[in-house]
Amino acid sequence: MFKPAFIFLMMLMLSGPVFSSPKKPLVKLPSPIHFVTDSSKIYLRHFDSTAMAKYRHDPAFNYTADKQANTWWDRFWQWVWDVWTGFWNWIGRLLARLFGHVHLGRSAFSAMKVVLLLLAVTLIVFIISRLAGIDLLRSIRKNQPVDQVPYSESLENIHQINFDEAIENALTVKDYRLAVRLLYLRSLKQLSDANLINWRIEKTNSAYLNELTDVEQRRRFSIVTRQFEYVWYGDFPVDGQSFNSINSFFQEFKQALS
Fold first, then answer.
1. Where are the domains positioned within the chain?
2. CA distances from 70 to 26, 64, 76, 80 (A)
3. Which of 14, 159, 234, 253 is placed for a possible disulfide with 230 were both Cys, Cβ 3.0 to 4.6 Å?
4. What is the DSSP letter of 147?
5. DSSP per residue over 14-30, as a string?
6. Is 220 exposed, middle or buried (0-12, 13-18, 19+ CB in 10 A)?
């Protein structure tokens, strides 16, 4: 009775497990990579030593040249540029102080620069012309119509005019502008007679002023010169009352030279 049971049990054990876990799918391995050997022929190239030496000594290819020292001319223009930049920085701060931080725009600020530059150039030209004894106002007014007066500005000779009579005639017809001019010409004659100036018809008033070495004489002559230029070149209106005031300066100048 036990023998058949033992045989059945042995057969069951040898036959393997009744329940087994499911099999995992097989992983497909990648195909092996095949490398192709490069069979191209390699040619080894070298730099041309002759060409390299030529380029090495060519200044056009010298990018590490030493910077030359600044000359006095370079330093001068650097100073001018610094002054110019500082001036516009000062203008910007002044405008900001007066009007606040107002954005004028690039074009407006450039236009203002041009205007100020033209004014500066005009002032420099005027100063140089005055120092050189050139009267620009007279040159400009030569092309403008002027009042007809008995004495031509280009033909006057202070040594041939009877000033007392000429001044009296101008006052008679109330031509005060001409009377002031005659007073000034008489002052030039006084300076010339005293050998204080070298009178020439082509000279300017500033040239005569520079010839005076005495400080007081130069001061008095500058006063009458200014009065004359206001009236003759500046078209300053003159009536009887203003002429008397102007005439007093010329009388003081005349007495000081007597």
1. 99-132, 158-257
2. 84, 18, 10, 15
3. 234
4. -
5. HT--SS-PPPPPPPPPP
6. buried
Say how far apart CA 94 and CA 78 lie, in whole Å: 24
Closest to 183 (Cα-Cα) out of 202, 201, 208, 166: 166
CA distance 245 to 227: 10
Alpha carbons 192 and 200: distance in angstroms, whole number: 10
Helix, strand or coil, per DSSP, at residue 108: helix
How far from 16 is each of 7, 9, 24, 101, 242, CA to CA, in Å? 15, 12, 19, 100, 147
pLDDT of residue 134: 58
Amino acid at 225: T
Distance CA 229, CA 136 (A): 13
The dihedrals phi and psi of 135, each to the nearest 5 degrees, come to -95, 100
Confidence (pLDDT) at 256: 87
The C-alpha atoms of residue 130 and residue 22 are separated, in whole angstroms, by 119
pTM metric for this prediction: 0.43
Q: Angle, to 10 degrees, between the axis of helix 163-172 and the axis of helix 176-193?
A: 170
Angle at 109 between CA 103 and CA 111, to 5 degrees: 145
- Mean pLDDT of residues grouped by 10 in the chain (258 residues)? 60 55 60 72 81 80 65 82 80 71 58 72 74 57 44 61 89 92 91 88 85 90 91 84 91 87
The C-alpha atoms of residue 91 and residue 113 are separated, in whole angstroms, by 10
